[in-house]
Amino acid sequence: MTHWHTLRSAFRALIAVSALGLGTTDAASQATPSPSGCVTCHLTLPDSALAGPARAYQDDVHAAKGFGCVDCHGGDPTRNDLSAKAPGRGYIGRPAGRQILQACGRCHSDAAFMRRFNPTLRVDQVTEYSSSVHGQRLLKGDPKVATCSSCHPAHQILPPGDTRSSVNPLNVAQTCGQCHASAEYMQSYGIATDQFDGYRKSVHWRALSEGGDRSAPTCNDCHGNHGAAPPGVASVANVCGQCHSVMAEYYANSRHAAAFEEMAVAGCVGCHSNHEVAVPTDTALSVAEGSICGQCHSEGDDGALMAAAMRGAIDSLHRGIFTAESLLTVAERAGMEVSQAQFELESATSALLQARAAIHTFEPDSVNQHAGAGWEIATAAISRGHAALENLRFRRVGLGISTGIILLLIFGLVLKIRQIEAAGTADAGTPSTTGGRE
Predict the structure, then answer these.
(1) I need a surface site. Which of 63, 157, 373, 429 has the fewest CB within 10 A?
(2) What share of the chain is helix, strand, coil (3-state, %, to 5)?
(3) How does pLDDT run across 310-337, given as a tens digit for each residue?
(4) Average pLDDT of 99-112?
(5) What SS3 class is residue 81?
């Protein structure tokens, strides 16, 4: 009777929960993990479609917490035969659409219940989903849109930190691409399907997959996960600004922000693309064919002149830093003490980064301000590098002279020794004048 009461309470919650606006229910708070004999039978079935889920579920996070089949599929938990699936016993064979939201939301929308298993897990996922493009289309009766199990495969839900998980940062793009990279599946929506391929070429993907930077963005970082939606024209800069805050602030106060909005150009995307974001280079500040600025500006107009001015300031600082680094490296390898100058030169490199960020003001004066400060540091480092090399040359000249003097002294000493030896030999060979007179 206890099990039946628990099951009955759970399914009262399912009935009480609305299609998307799932809230906290007392029944969910009372629910407890239920063991099931379903797995024992399903593992013996020859049909992989029936045996596979039971096999995969052994590693599922819910299985680790003690949840069984009936906790999601319903049925009579007191029976291990097919009568558990009899009509009237609350059995759900394969939930779909709103049923999935109800089944998942029964627990995941109940803070009191979730606190017993994972207090850090959010309980607003279903509410967020109702605001997403997916949720809104589901409400309108679209059966193809993504629901919980589309991204969190039923029976194989793993912690996000597990590299096998469908929502591990390395796998999120692949998970979204199951639908969004399929031209056939997305045909009825009129949505491009090149996002996945573009993202795999981007600097973000390289940072994530090759650089091991788990903070590098993937699909859900820009679009959201449960509340997934394409950012509007006016909100793209805010999305990018979550990470690139300095550039976003510069851009928000720039002349291009208003111009792009008027032209319905989506902020950052207008210059950097969205999914296939490439590593920006200084050559972008040009109106040459294929350049970014050249998309809107032409040779001789105000935009082209500003781009050239900003590029000139940055190139000058870059050359200064390169020259200083080269001189100091040569001096260091020769044994000269230049560590302080090298340390100070790092500030010039920081100024170069700031100057590049200031490009988003689209004002040469702003770029020049940072580039000028960096140039002063670079020229000081160049002077110290020259001084170190001059000191090295002075030391080498002094060492050469000292070595020459020492060699001359040694040579003179050798000659003197030979003279003394020669004189001694001559004295030994001279006959005595007193012998024979005695």
Answers:
(1) 429
(2) 60, 0, 40
(3) 999 999 999 999 999 999 999 999 999 9
(4) 92
(5) coil
DSSP codes joined into one string, 249-285:
HHHHTSHHHHHHHHTT--TTHHHH-SSSPPPP-GGGS
- Containing 28, the helix (H) or strand (E) segment is helix 26-30
Token duo for residue 143: 């059966």
Q: What is the pLDDT of residues 162-220, one digit of tens each?
A: 999 999 999 999 999 999 999 999 999 989 999 999 999 999 999 999 999 999 999 99
Q: What angle do CA 279, 282, 288 make, to 5 degrees?
A: 105
Quote the DSSP letter at residue 229. Answer: -
CA dihedral 210, 216, 217, 218 (to 10 degrees): 30
In whole angstroms, give the CA distance from residue 108 to residue 23.
9
Residues with Cβ within 8 Å of 11's Cβ and at least 6 positions away in sequence, in order, are 74, 90
Show the DSSP H helices in 298-363 as ranges.
302-333, 339-357
Q: How far is CA 31 from CA 76, 183, 261, 282, in A?
A: 15, 42, 51, 60
Q: Please provide the distance, in angstroms rounded to a whole number, between the alpha carbons at the two ends of the chain.
A: 152
Verdict on whether the full-model pTM lies above 0.85: no
Asked whether 271 and 278 are in contact (CB, 8 A), the reply is: no
* pLDDT tens readout for residues 22-81: 433 444 444 445 555 788 888 888 988 889 998 999 899 999 998 988 888 888 777 767
- Alpha-helical (H) ranges within 57-145 are 61-64, 70-73, 98-108, 111-114, 125-131, 133-139
Q: Kindly report the backbone phi and psi dihedral angles of residue 305, in degrees, each rounded to the nearest multiple of 5, phi listed first.
A: -65, -40
> If you ran DSSP here, which 8-state letter would residue 91 be given?
-
Q: How many CA atoms lie within 13 A of 210 on its CB side?
A: 8
Instruction: Dig out the tokens for 80 from the structure.
Output: 């291990």
